[in-house]
Design a protein that fits this description.
The protein has 367 residues and is α/β, with parallel strands linked by helices. The protein is built from 14 helices and twelve strands. Strand 2, helix 3 and strand 3 form a beta-alpha-beta unit. Helix 4 packs across helix 5, helix 8 packs across helix 13 and helix 10 crosses helix 11. The longest helix is centred in the middle third of the chain and has 13 residues. It is globular, with a radius of gyration of 21 Å. The C terminus is likely disordered.
Length: 367
């Protein structure tokens, strides 16, 4: 494409304004770009909702936000981008709006996916392999700058500070949870209705985890309060409902405090992977073949094999077939069996005995 600069960029902007989990799965790209350009100024453009998840990323020098849900205008974010005088833009987001932003920014090196909505907005277009994990697809974008990703780049990062650690400690103390109590977390929420397993399923798993010696914590954001209260109430009086009581940034601190997470295909799954938290993931409308499965070895996926799955890349408001069998036929017995298998693994037991003692610490990736 005419007008492209080939100079080594000293200021690089990565654009990822999709969902929270997508942003977490972009953090290995930050790591790779920092390795390849150690002296460059590296910035990320994310939504305000996702900014807390990358606030402690050691590979970023700057975080810009685009509050599209809050009504921030396109021209306002374009001015932010232009003011940064970036020499390279790398887009992990494929939307037409991101393509227009890239094109109108005037940034001399622009890298995006070949299957982006506006591929011609990018000087260099990278093939997005449909069978790869999203982490590896994002890492492939460095090829657009003339480099190759390395295995050591394949590390997720979500950090937190002592303030978030204190949030978690406060909520647990208010619930009468002892510092050494063994905790398991349930995360029954999701933006998409067809990604949500039934509340009674989560509740049955919670009761089973209590029988295994765990105390159950039900996680969620402000929008998950109703389902979290329903699940916690059905688990029993010892369950702790913390939905909406701590910040999003504290989610990573929760992952370091609990010994096991049971979750839908949603952002806590990827935060858990970043912190090395043993995880059982329930998949309904989506499948791991879409590239968004658990990204760590201490994990299990429970799903029902149906020819109508996946019914879309993200899920939807209701089952297109009208039967919702992917979640309705998924049993608590199967989920609990995966929980038992996971907590009995030697690597998981070792993790439970050596939880990080600092919020800056990150559990090493399991082989």
């Amino acid at each position: 494409m005419r007008g492209e600069s080939t100079a080594t960029p000293s200021r690089i902007l990565v654009v990822q304004t999709a969902f929270l989990g997508d942003v977490v799965l972009t953090t290995p790209l930050f790591r790779a770009l920092r390795r390849l350009h150690p002296d460059a100024h590296l910035a990320a453009l994310v939504t305000p909702e996702a900014a807390p998840l990358v606030a402690e990323d050691p590979n970023l020098d700057e975080i810009l936000t685009y509050g599209k849900k809050a009504g921030e205008g396109f021209s306002a974010v374009l001015q932010k981008v232009k003011a940064g005088h970036y020499q390279a833009l790398v887009s992990a987001h494929r939307s037409h709006r991101t393509g227009f932003l890239a094109l109108l920014s005037g940034i001399p090196q622009r890298v995006g996916f070949a299957d982006a909505d506006l591929p011609w907005a990018y000087h260099r277009r990278v093939r997005r392999d449909p069978v790869e994990h999203e982490v590896d697809r994002n890492l492939g974008l460095v090829r657009g700058l003339g480099h190759e990703p390395r295995p050591e780049d394949r590390v997720l990062h979500v950090g937190y500070t002592p303030a978030e650690e204190a949030e978690v400690a406060r909520v647990l103390a208010e619930a009468g949870v002892a510092p050494g109590e063994r905790l398991a977390a349930l995360s029954p929420g999701s933006v998409w209705a067809t990604k949500r397993w039934l509340p009674e399923g989560f509740a049955a798993v919670g009761r089973g985890l209590e029988a295994l010696g765990f105390r159950v914590v039900v996680l969620g954001g402000p929008g998950d309060r109703a389902v979290a209260a329903q699940v916690a109430g059905s688990v029993g009086p010892r369950a702790v409902d913390v939905a909406g009581r701590t910040s999003l940034k504290a989610l990573a601190a929760w992952m370091d405090r609990v010994g096991l997470l049971v979750t839908n295909d949603s952002s806590p799954l990827h935060v858990a992977a970043a912190r090395g938290t043993p995880t059982v993931a329930v998949f309904g409308a989506t499948t791991t073949g879409l590239g968004f499965g658990p990204f760590h070895a201490a994990s299990r996926v429970v799903e029902v094999d149906l020819e109508c799955r996946p019914c879309g890349p993200h899920g939807s408001k209701k089952c297109p077939k009208g039967h919702f069998r992917c979640m309705g036929e998924l049993t608590a017995t199967d989920v609990l069996q995966s929980c038992r298998e996971l907590v009995e693994e030697p690597l998981v037991r070792r993790r439970a005995q050596a939880l990080p003692t600092s919020p800056a610490a990150k559990m090493p990736a399991l082989p």
